[in-house]
Amino acid sequence: RGLAAMAGALRGARRAAVLGLRRGLAKAAGPRSTRELREAEEAAPVFQYVGKAAKRKDRVFVWGFCYSGALGVPSFVKPDVGWKKPRRIQPTPYRLETAEKISSAACGYGFTLLSSTTTDITKVWGMGLNKDSQLGFQRSRRDRTKGYEYVLEPSPIPLPLEKPQQTRVLQVSCGRAHSLILTDSEGVFTMGNNSYGQCGRKVVEDETYSESHLIHQLKEFDSRVVQVVCGQDHSLFRTEKGAVYACGWGADGQTGLGHYNITSVPTKLRGDIAGVNIIQVSSYGDCCLAVSDEGDVFGWGNSEYLQLASVTETTQVNVPRHLPFKIGKIKEAACGGTGNVVLTEEGNVFVWGYGILGKGPNLIETAVPEMIPPSLFGWSDFNPDIRVAHVRCGLSQFAALTNRGELFVWGKNLRGCLGTGRMEDQYFPWRVTVPGEVVDVACGVDHMVSMVKSFT
Amino acid sequence: LNAAPRRPPRQHVRFLPVPDGGDGGATGLVAARVPVLAEHPLVRGPRFRRLKIGAGHRLDVKASGVFVLGIGDGNKLLPALYNCHLTKVYTVGGLFGKATDDFSDTGKLVEKTTFDHVTREKLERILAVIQGTNHKALLMHSNIDMKTQEAYELAVKGLIRPMGKSPPIITAIRCLQFARPEFQLEIHCLHETQQYLRKIVHEIGLELKSSAVCTQVRRIRDGVFTLDDALLRTQWNLQSIQNAIGDCQLKVKTELEKTLG
Q1: How close, in Å, is residue B155 to chain A by CA atoms?
Q2: Are A47 and B111 in contact (CB < 8 Å)?
Q3: What keywords does the record list, in alphabetical order (chain A) (predicted)?
Q4: Taking the model in full, what pTM does it have?
């Protein structure tokens, strides 16, 4: 009887157990804590930091020498808070707040111009040195009759436009003490020093350039001007038809007009580029390079540093000469003070000239272009499709932009202008850490400005 | 191991007394070759009582993959291999939408975020930047003066590597798979820990303005040892271990000679 009762009890228990299992067949109950954790996790609020259609933001980063005001951050020169100290050099990229999206930037010798393609009244901002009115007339707030000699933050430059709410500014360029602004329908505006005719107007003897309201407009070209370039004391204009015009100082032959005199009216260049469709011109010091649509490169100007030594022994070339390099079809060229760099269609970078060229401390000068190995720009078996997309030149530095948006710099690190964070010269291409994808960079003597798109 | 046949015991010559017929008196000595008693198996006992096993680079509990061990005299090669500073390759799996306190999916939840704006293109951009900054760190920690021609030549060949202590450096990173919310990365790194890799996944999530946790860390290569050389759980027996040691000996020797000279 006891056994039977026990069996009965067991059977009962099993039945109860079976019933219990059957009830909870869907999911066996885990320990309370994990189930509670899972439920708490599912009930937690979801944060949204950025929406699905969020656009990438456009930013401007600056670095280099601060005391001239060319970086556009007033607190570097005149600290706004007691504990801040004036900063002489900004060694790494620093974000500059701008009112509009900046499409073109140019660095001169101690000053910077930023421009946007907006149709608002204010299209161009300038900062830095203004002793020759290269930033136009900046009215001083303390004395309404005087202008500022140093502009510490991006200040609007008033342009005498006929249709200010329709014309767009396409590009800006800066030289030693003058600047050029290119518009889409009203020609080119020039301001600043004109002692060598670089502003395209007649040289007036004993003219005072500081606090001048004069902005000259240039419209007489064979067709619409599509690119303006400033050398140290001369200006180059490239038109839609592929012609090149020049004016300004010519003692090194940089105007390319066949003489070594000053030119005060933009005149068309002849020589080896007569009849050639030029697609890009470049200059920053006293040497000039032009690239044709067929991939040939032409040079004129100063050749003291072997820039044009491949075609001539003379140190000043005043007529454009074709440079017969067998390195492939050339896409882009950039001229620095003593060295030149070109970019070929395959994405290879070639340098020649004098100074720190980017192939180690042993290569100081060469008349024939030498290629910089692509592995220095991040190319490897792991990343075989990295290519250099653009090359830029400052006075003694070079910059290269890859198709991944990385910026590589090399050359003399004058007052921290390379942006690497160190003060030493850089003998081979080195990455600059910028928090974004670098779209374009403008190099100056001792500072640089870059236009960057944020990652997300 | 102990059951394996041993080498036969040494023999030595001993002068043994000749068992005489029963004469008494003169006992002669005869030279005989007998095995040395000290090498008798019952005297010596089992050949192996303990085995010294040393570990190569650490692998933590939540991770899996290739784990290098040195046995006995092989432990002497372990420091040499460490000084070669070879890269290790990991496959790291991640999940968008969550952030936890220990960066893995088993940790305590800190925050949940949306991730519908994350695309493969954005992820690859972030990875390119990570690779760039780590490449810079690689050049800086390698203790070579950047101003020398030697530094330039090593940089061109891509052979600059820190040969001493350095913080964790990622030499290459790329996205293998992307199926939102999951993704998988392949990371080549030096001097890292698995928790550092989980932190990288978390930081990638932050950079993309969302959040991410690491679901899997698997080492697929440790210097010269790849997944093919690794033994599975079912192969943890004497024969496979002996074969594996034999196969890897040559590889390890050539690598040590190449790097340390």
Answers
A1: 7
A2: yes
A3: Membrane, Mitochondrion, Mitochondrion inner membrane, Repeat, Transit peptide
A4: 0.85
